[in-house]
Design a protein that fits this description.
The structure holds two protein chains of two kinds.
Chain A (H helix, E strand, L loop, with lengths): L1 H13 L6 H14 L4 H12 L3 H14 L1 H16 L1 H16 L3 H6 L4 H7 L4 H13 L10 H12 L2 H14 L2 H42 L10 H27 L4 H7 L21 E7 L5 H13 L6 E7 L3 E3 L1 H6 L2 H12 L6 H12 L7 E6 L11 H10 L2 E6 L13 H4 L5 E4 L3 H14 L1
Parallel strand pairs in A: 1-2, 1-4, 4-5, 5-6
Antiparallel strand pairs in A: 2-3
Helix pairs in contact in A: 2-3, 6-12, 9-10, 10-12, 11-12, 13-15, 13-21, 15-17, 18-19
Chain B lengths: L10 H10 L6 H13 L3 E4 L6 H12 L3 E5 L6 H4 L1 E3 L1 H10 L1 H8 L4 H10 L11 E3 L1 H7 L5 E5 L6 H13 L1 E4 L3 E4 L5 E6 L7 H6 L1 E4 L5 H11 L5 H16 L8 H13 L7 H11 L3 H16 L2
Parallel strand pairs in B: 1-8, 1-9, 2-5, 5-8
Antiparallel strand pairs in B: 3-4, 6-7
Classes of the chains: A alpha/beta, B alpha/beta.
Chain lengths: ~450, ~300
């Protein structure tokens, strides 16, 4: 049981529930106290020890149903079987007995009934279940992760359950060609069919689980250009945002407190004859970051922009003063869209209204200069997302230098690899000196790291 | 916990015992409480307001015959209010009273260093347990017969306080800098409640069993009502509960919880209402709904809501 629970915990972890070893120990302990005969109670006990929030319990429900489905199906099966199975099983055994006594014993001794055959035809399925569980473990089914491996794993499981002996038995029985052997062969074949079906389903289930496990991790490292705006992406964005919010909200609160500043207190209270009447506190002043995001939304980088905007606006709680600008040829402010519409609608609107036209960085920068230059001050962080491919137009790099002088920092996120910067019509190398830092930002994971750093410094 | 070690203590018996103390628990609630007692783990109870999170602690205290010690959390709550405080007044008074004694002690001492040396021999008398004013957390640990400690609305406290609780929750001990570590005489049963105003830290959640109490279903609520307002006529109970249930399905700013159902039942009882008709419902709607918008919205829909049954 403990091993099963460990496996279950691993599954939960892969689905985003952070199950710690002590929690797992609690679960094991709880199950030891209440037993596992009552499925509902079993479920409740695991739920209260492993899933620690309402959101977690939804994930937990899904995983629980998927993982512990096995036993319930078996229970159903065996109850069904107890109605239908005994007759064939009995006739099979009856055959054996009568076959042995009626003198055709030589056949039986030459082909002893295979273990798997006995298990399959027996009315008690527990033997079969145990051997199947062993086979699944031996085949390391939990490692399955590619769809093409399904056949391979099914085969391995069947092999280690003793399929070879079983086939031999069927062949031998075929050769005898008596009525009894025919009956037995048919029963065996039917049983084999249903066993295969069952194994196929089990493998399928493990495969689905494995795929679910991998997905979140994969998305983080997937290139923006292949990500479509699906639910998965949204979930990953939310999770990344939540992590950063909890991290940085705490930091801001800390700054608000302050501890006794002994030097300042002494100095201040000289006026009171050295009696410490008014304490002075140490402060770490920490401004909430003012961020201006300037996004190139033309075709080549629109997916990146979409993701960046979604991410930044999910972080509203720690970046309250966020302004967004979008451009392809001309630049305009899009912050209002986000105030009036839901996140996804707003992004769609931005893309639809500003996404056309060929990229012109020079014009966009001068637009920004006219529009918001005054608001860029030493507390502002400028994030520019774009590939700096200017279609051989005027780059206006001097404006970038101007922004750099005014702003606290200028961060450039470029979806291209660093070694491609400056090739062809890319103006990246001309903008680069005017950036506090510039990053190649190609997938959500990289973006998260950059924004984390931004929140620390901004 | 010797109290729980008797053989006939099971989740089912616990549920029945809770019932005899006036708390109708769903199976899940009883099981979690049972596990908490068995594993000696705190429970983190979540759920919408008014579903009986605090009541659960009261019932548990009555059931296990242990005093209920309650700590209401709020922003700015710190250890001097939650854990302990020095009795400054007493300390000052004692220093005044003992002033003369000091003269006797120091008489004949040669120079400053010897005086200080002599003073040191008396130890930190002013920072001993006699001068300690125990606050809820400390008194829960010091209670000889064990206690049920209710830390109410933990989500309202600061994160620092939450971190400070971790030692108590995992080891049932608390460190006081001047004295040392105070261990629980008898491990208290700890319940924390949260209304989910903010996300609690993973470290805290990890140390607790998690219990989510949602609104009860029809039959459970009928049972609760029967036990809480026994004098309510039976023929009124069913329609009353199903009306509240139908209210919960509406889009409201604050859905009525069990406590509101009970209040409403008491109101109707007080007014001697015989049957649940539109007039009475409309008059007493304010007991169920706590926002004017909600009241108005429901008032419009009232005929259809009442007809539905």
């Amino acid at each position: 049981m403990e091993r099963k629970l460990t496996e279950f915990a691993a599954l939960l972890r892969n689905n985003g529930l952070l199950v710690s070893p002590p929690e797992l120990a609690d679960a094991v302990h709880a199950i030891a106290v209440i037993g596992y005969t009552d499925r509902r109670r079993f479920h409740d006990a695991l739920s209260c020890t492993l899933a620690k929030s309402l959101q977690d319990s939804l994930t937990f429900e899904r995983c629980f149903d998927l993982f512990f489905q096995f036993s319930s199906i078996d229970a159903e099966d065996s109850s069904k079987d107890s109605a239908s199975a005994p007759p064939p099983a009995q006739s099979g055994q009856g055959n054996m007995g009568s076959g042995g006594s009626s003198g055709s014993g030589s056949d039986n001794t030459s082909t002893p009934p295979s273990e798997l055959g006995i298990q399959l035809l027996s009315s008690d399925r527990s033997e079969l279940d145990i051997s199947m569980a062993r086979a699944i473990e031996a085949a390391r089914l939990q490692d399955i992760n590619v769809i093409t491996q399904k056949g391979l794993y099914s085969h391995r499981i069947l092999q280690s359950m003793g399929m070879d002996d079983f086939e031999r038995e069927i062949q031998a029985l075929d050769a005898i060609n008596s009525r009894e052997s025919l009956l037995r062969v048919n029963a065996l074949r039917n049983a084999r069919q249903s066993l295969r079906q069952q194994i196929r389903e089990t493998v399928e289930r493990y495969y689905l689980l494995a795929r679910q496990q991998n997905r979140d991790g994969i998305i983080r490292d997937m290139d923006f250009s292949v990500l479509r705006d699906s639910k998965d992406v949204k979930r990953v964005v939310q999770r990344m945002a939540k992590r950063l919010i909890t991290l940085h909200r705490r930091r801001q609160k800390l700054a608000a407190r302050g501890i006794l500043d002994v030097k300042a207190t002494l100095r201040h209270n000289i006026a009171y004859d050295g009696i410490l009447a008014e304490p002075r506190w140490k402060y770490i002043r920490k401004d909430k970051p003012r961020v201006m995001a300037i996004c190139d939304v033309s075709g080549s980088v629109s997916l990146h922009a979409r993701f960046l905007l979604m991410f930044l606006y999910s972080l509203q709680e720690v970046i309250p003063k966020l302004r967004a600008f979008a451009f392809s040829s001309s630049l305009s402010e899009v912050s209002d869209y986000f105030k009036q519409h839901t996140l996804e609608d707003a992004i769609d609107l931005v893309m639809a209204r500003h996404g056309m036209g060929s990229t012109d960085y020079g014009r966009a920068l001068s637009d920004l200069n006219n529009l918001a230059c005054r608001e860029i001050d030493r507390r502002t962080t400028l994030i520019i997302l774009g590939d700096a491919r200017n279609n051989n137009g005027e780059a206006n790099a001097n404006l970038m230098h101007q922004f750099h002088d005014r702003a606290k920092q200028v961060i450039w996120l470029n979806p291209e690899r660093r070694n491609r910067w400056g090739t062809g019509d890319s103006e990246m190398l001309r903008y680069l000196p005017a950036c506090t830092s510039a990053w190649s930002c190609r997938n959500p994971g990289e973006l998260e790291r950059i924004v984390d750093r931004l929140l620390k410094t901004a | 916990m010797a109290l729980f070690s008797s053989k006939n203590f099971t989740a089912d018996s616990l549920r029945k015992d809770l019932e005899s103390h006036g708390y109708i628990a769903s199976e899940n609630v009883a099981l979690t409480l049972f596990l908490a007692a068995q594993l000696e783990k705190p429970i983190l109870v979540e759920g919408p307001p008014g579903v009986g999170k605090t009541e659960l602690a009261k019932a548990a205290s009555a059931l296990f015959q242990r005093p209920l010690i309650r700590l209401q959390c709020y922003e700015g709550l710190d250890e001097s209010k939650a854990l302990y405080e020095w009795k400054y007044g007493k300390q000052l008074l004692y220093t005044q009273v003992l002033k003369e004694q000091l003269g006797d002690i120091l008489r004949g001492a040669q120079g400053l260093s010897e005086s200080v040396e002599r003073l040191h021999q008396f130890g930190d008398i002013f920072y001993s347990t006699e001068f300690l004013e125990p606050r809820p957390l400390l008194s829960a640990l010091q209670s000889d017969e064990g206690a049920v400690l209710l830390i109410d609305e933990i989500d309202k406290s600061d994160q620092e306080f939450e971190a400070f609780l971790l030692e108590l929750l995992s080891d049932y001990q608390i460190s006081i800098p001047e004295i040392g570590t105070v261990k629980a005489h008898k491990k208290p049963l700890v319940l924390l409640t949260s209304n989910n105003q903010r996300e609690l830290s993973d470290a805290l959640k990890r140390r607790c069993l998690h219990l989510y109490i949602s609104y009860p279903d029809q039959s459970l609520e009928c049972k609760i009502l029967a036990s809480q307002v026994p004098s309510l006529p039976e023929k009124l109970r069913e329609p009353l509960v199903s009306f509240v249930q139908s209210l919960r399905a509406q889009d409201l700013r604050k859905a009525p919880a069990i406590s509101e159902t009970i209040d409403w039942a008491r109101t109707l009882l007080l007014l001697n209402v015989e049957a649940l008709d539109a007039v009475w419902v409309e008059k007493t709607l304010a007991v169920l709904l706590k926002h004017q918008d909600d009241v108005e919205r429901i008032r419009e829909k009232l005929p259809s809501l009442l007809k539905k049954r």
